[in-house]
UniProtKB/TrEMBL annotation:
Pfam families: LpxI_C (PF06230), LpxI_N (PF17930). InterPro entries: LpxI, LpxI_C, LpxI_C_sf, LpxI_N. This is UDP-2,3-diacylglucosamine pyrophosphatase. Residues 136-266 form the LpxI C-terminal domain. It comes from the Bacteria. Residues 2-129 form the LpxI N-terminal domain.
């Protein structure tokens, strides 16, 4: 079983590769230029290619005998004009049509359908790694108090309202006030911005959940040690995530960092959560 890993930034794709090999499989890594660091994949076969050269990527994956693909790691969505698409990519953009200019989830679904039509099976990183989701309840740190639970409920309501617009996965709420909503900048930048808007009194909560109907195979929400550090720097008291629906990267380190900082991580069933 040979897995092609389309790798963005951060250590997550390497961990996916290690887990797959540990299961007895083989891997080939596609390092997306300007996002993935090839040095992280020492010991594995890899190529480095730009986003717009999808035709070259697919040809190489086939030549390597890849039948399954997993997409993981951080990446920013490029503008269509910056892609400099090769012939395959240009045809793909024409085929997906309006989806190329829609929200991330709509575009990802279209891209995955194209890859499936090319004969690849798509496997989510969470199905390879295992143990990176959390059951409902307190995951780390102190139990959220009544005000924190109210902020969590407010965050869930805001994200539920935004979900049909395919905007973002996270919001920061403090004492009922929305300090920031995640858009294209990502969670780390959201936390930095929310920290600048912090009010006096008890700190707020980062609420990070999947969008309704989100394509979880390639775009599940993720938190990790960097998220915890950003939340602490922003003066937050906790992070709320979807039970069995938000990936905790570097889970032992993330939970330890939260506990050491006195920051709670709380897994909710968002459709049934009550403050």
């Amino acid at each position: 079983m040979k897995l092609g890993i389309i790798a963005g930034g951060g250590p997550y794709p390497r961990r996916v590769a290690d887990a797959w090999v540990k299961k007895g499989g083989e891997v080939f890594i596609v390092c997306i230029r300007d996002f993935a660091d090839p040095k992280l994949f020492d010991g594995y076969p890899f190529m480095v290619e730009r986003v717009g050269a999808a035709g070259n990527i697919i040809s190489r994956l086939r030549a390597e005998g890849v039948t399954k693909i997993s997409l993981s790691g951080r990446a920013r969505r490029p503008s269509i004009l910056s892609l400099l698409p090769d012939a395959w990519t240009a045809k793909a953009i024409a085929r997906v049509g309006r989806s190329a200019f829609s929200g991330d989830d709509t575009l990802l679904r279209a891209a995955m359908n194209l890859l499936r039509e090319e004969g690849f099976e798509i496997i989510g990183p969470m199905h390879i790694l295992g143990g990176i989701l959390a059951e409902a309840g307190l995951v780390a740190g102190p139990e959220p108090d009544a005000m924190a639970r109210q902020d969590i409920a407010r965050g869930i309501a805001v994200l539920s309202a935004l979900s049909p617009q395919d905007v973002g996965q996270a919001v920061v709420v403090q004492q009922g006030l929305v300090l920031g909503v995640e858009a294209i900048e990502g969670t780390d930048a959201l936390l930095a911005r929310a920290g600048e808007q912090r009010r006096e009194g008890p700190g707020g909560v980062l609420v990070k959940l999947p969008k309704i109907g989100q394509e979880m195979t390639v775009d599940a929400p993720v938190i990790g040690p960097v998220t915890v550090a950003g939340a602490v720097a922003a003066g937050l008291r906790g992070i709320a995530i979807e039970a069995l629906g938000t990936v905790i990267a570097d889970k032992p380190e993330t939970l330890r960092a939260a506990a050491d900082a006195g920051l709670f991580i709380y897994a909710v069933e968002s459709q049934r959560f009550t403050p």
